[in-house]
């Protein structure tokens, strides 16, 4: 297996609401299939939004409800003020700040928000992970 992630799919309760949230963050849907799945082209991978129940069926597992799923997504930014700005933007778009930005024990600055379906996103500035001109986060 090559060391790569091609696509991340978030199971959502209301596809239209989830799409509005991510579009309110300034993201543009690259493809919508029959109002059942929405794809966003990111730098080097794709994020998709899909019905949570349909995703569980597709994977052959039971949709067991909510709570911490043991995974977070991360969005690194170029400066500490940008961390605060993105958290505010997520809140205005309908997300919920679950941990305000603060100094992290690993030396950076970060906080967390939850999207309308509770998916956790860390927003972080880490000087050791530079971001190139194409928006790719690199191991420093």
Counting structural domains, the number is 2
> Number of helix segments?
3
In CATH, the architecture of the largest domain is Roll
Count the beta strands. Answer: 8
Q: Termini separation (Å)? A: 24 Å
Poorly predicted runs of 5 or more residues: none
Descriptive report:
By secondary structure, the chain is α/β, with parallel strands linked by helices. The chain has two domains: about 60 residues, Roll (2,3-Dihydroxybiphenyl 1,2-Dioxygenase, domain 1), CATH 3.10.180; about 60 residues, 2,3-Dihydroxybiphenyl 1,2-Dioxygenase, domain 1, CATH 3.10.180.10. It contains three helices and eight strands; from the N terminus they run E-H-E-E-E-H-E-H-E-E-E. The chain has a four-stranded mixed sheet. Strand 3 and strand 4 form a beta hairpin. The longest helix is centred in the middle third of the chain and has 13 residues. The two termini are about 25 Å apart.
């Amino acid at each position: 297996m090559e060391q790569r992630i091609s696509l991340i799919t978030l199971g959502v309760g209301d596809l239209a609401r989830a799409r509005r949230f991510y579009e309110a963050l300034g993201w543009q849907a690259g493809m919508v299939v029959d109002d059942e799945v929405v794809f966003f082209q990111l730098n080097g991978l794709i994020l998709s939004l899909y019905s949570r129940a349909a995703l569980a069926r597709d994977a052959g597992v039971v949709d067991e409800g909510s709570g911490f799923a043991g995974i977070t997504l991360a969005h690194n930014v170029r400066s500490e003020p940008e961390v605060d700005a993105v958290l505010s933007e997520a809140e205005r778009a309908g997300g919920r700040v679950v941990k305000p930005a603060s100094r992290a024990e690993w030396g950076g600055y970060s906080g967390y928000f939850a999207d309308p379906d509770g998916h956790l996103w860390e927003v972080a500035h880490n000087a050791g992970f530079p971001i190139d001109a194409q928006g790719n986060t690199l191991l420093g």
